[in-house]
Amino acid sequence: MADSEPLLSLDGDPVAAEALLRDVFGIVVDEVIRKGTSASEKVCEWKEPEELKQLLDLELRSHGESREQILERCRAVIRYSVKTCHPHFFNQLFSGLDPHALAGRIVTESLNTSQYTYEIAPVFVLMEEEVLKKLRALVGWSSGDGVFCPGGSISNMYAVNLARYQRYPDCKQRGLRALPPLALFTSKECHYSIKKGAAFLGLGTDSVRVVKADERGKMIPEDLERQISLAKAEGAVPFLVTATSGTTVLGAFDPLEAIADVCQRHGLWLHVDAAWGGSVLLSQTHRHLLAGIQRADSVAWNPHKLLTAGLQCSALLLRDTSNLLKRCHGSQASYLFQQDKFYDVALDTGDKVVQCGRRVDCLKLWLMWKAQGGQGLEQRVDQAFALARYLVEELKKREGFELVMEPEFVNVCFWFVPPSLRGKQGSPDYAERLAKVAPVLKERMVKEGSMMVGYQPHGTRGNFFRMVVANPALTQADMDFFLNELERLGQDL
């Protein structure tokens, strides 16, 4: 980077600070928003770690740098970062860029407040409650509680903690010695945060009873019933069932009505991890996939995924109206939650969470919803389903593409069978050789920067691609490109 005058502190120099920020915002608009969303640009510019360290010059030194150097640092960070807003980024359950949500994120970061008391976050305390109320209404609840969490994993962990506290409130003070051996139940397709949460909360991963799923990845209610009886016979106390609406790999929706029946019979808390599939509730056409969700006690829902609200935007919704969140997590810190304030102290929501400082995650969703309206967001969800269906039909027309199963969501799972393996399904090493195809193609696409899509093994199935159709800017041309690019990258295999 070019040497120039070091950047003196901008403290107390609002003109220089504003000039710097205008330049940075200009770089962001040009390099992230304009180029990062252009199909003619690369998704990523791959570098090996050692080379990338040198290019970024990561070392922190005692002397400051010039404004020109700082701007060049911003350009370098953007250049070598993956463009998750790119139309050919299909790698995760989040992608794309909503300008109104981004505007909300910029305002949020600029205001730099913490969502714990009305006195320092009056707008956002009221806004968060309004957004959560809207999400609860879509679940089917006219009342309840909730909070935005730092990711769906934390939402799921909170649900485990709340279910345990509701059953054994003594555990908040007395800890694990107040508890009998507990059992919670989830399907083998659940998100890994359920087991992580059990470990983190001191229950241990052995307390998680894994319920069988059918060939489409849905929890089998009959096996749930069997597992509950088995746990009781072994001396454990069942307390929670976690169902999934939109599993991570296959995009499966558990049968919530039947699972709720089991929970009702046994008096168990029902949590629905709808981090991925919750946004389908906005669609009149597809919300039947979550039939029965209104019978849950808690729901995790990540609008940063299918709705493109931007990371992070993860809601935990509760049917409870007894202030369970605050009773479970609160510690009444007297320097924050004084009870003799000049306003209604019920507006201080900070004791609902385990965190102290909590970032504002409601504005980006609220602003996007204001701009798009519920109808616009519904169209976004329906369009994703329609494009996924288009991709499936096009995939079936081409030689060398084999569906893992017909999708019911926007996860399209398939194998790419290269020319050398076509017609050889009967050979003894076919599965082993096929499993090696996806990693090779992934390396090629990433190093070329042409696109990114995830792959994984699953049960007895060897590596296959999981294409996620979520970016609202996607078109049929992007689906065609995706298939053409896989054929190009794999033509010599």
- In which order are the strands of the major sheet placed? 2-8-7-6-5-3-4
- The whole-number mean of residue pLDDT values reads 96
End-to-end gap? 42 Å
Give the helix proportion (percent range): 40-55%
Order of helices and strands: HHHEHHEHHEHEHEHEEEHHEEHHEEH
Global outline:
globular
Class computed from helices, strands and strand pairing: alpha/beta
Ranges with pLDDT <50 over ≥5 residues? Answer: none
How would you explain this protein's 3D organization?
With 493 residues, this protein is of the alpha/beta class. Helices cover 40% and strands 13% of the residues. The strands form 2 sheets. It has a 7-stranded mixed β-sheet with strand order 2-8-7-6-5-3-4, with helices on both faces. Helix 1 packs parallel to helix 3, helix 6 crosses helix 8 and helix 14 packs across helix 15. The protein starts with 13 loop residues before the first helix and ends with a helix. The model has no long low-confidence stretch (mean pLDDT 96). GO terms for molecular function: pyridoxal phosphate binding; sulfinoalanine decarboxylase activity. This is Cysteine sulfinic acid decarboxylase. Its cofactor is pyridoxal 5'-phosphate. Belongs to the group II decarboxylase family.
Topology (elements, then pairings):
Layout: H1 14-34, H2 49-56, H3 67-79, E1 89-90, H4 99-111, H5 122-139, E2 145-149, H6 152-167, H7 171-174, E3 182-187, H8 193-200, E4 208-211, H9 221-233, E5 237-244, H10 256-266, E6 269-273, E7 298-301, E8 314-318, H11 324-329, H12 363-397, E9 401-403, E10 411-416, H13 430-435, H14 437-448, E11 452-458, E12 461-468, H15 476-490
Parallel strand pairs: 1-11, 3-4, 3-5, 5-6, 6-7
Antiparallel strand pairs: 2-8, 7-8, 9-10, 10-12, 11-12
Protein name: Cysteine sulfinic acid decarboxylase
InterPro entries: PyrdxlP-dep_de-COase (IPR002129), PyrdxlP-dep_Trfase (IPR015424), PyrdxlP-dep_Trfase_major (IPR015421), Pyridoxal-P_BS (IPR021115)
Pfam families: Pyridoxal_deC
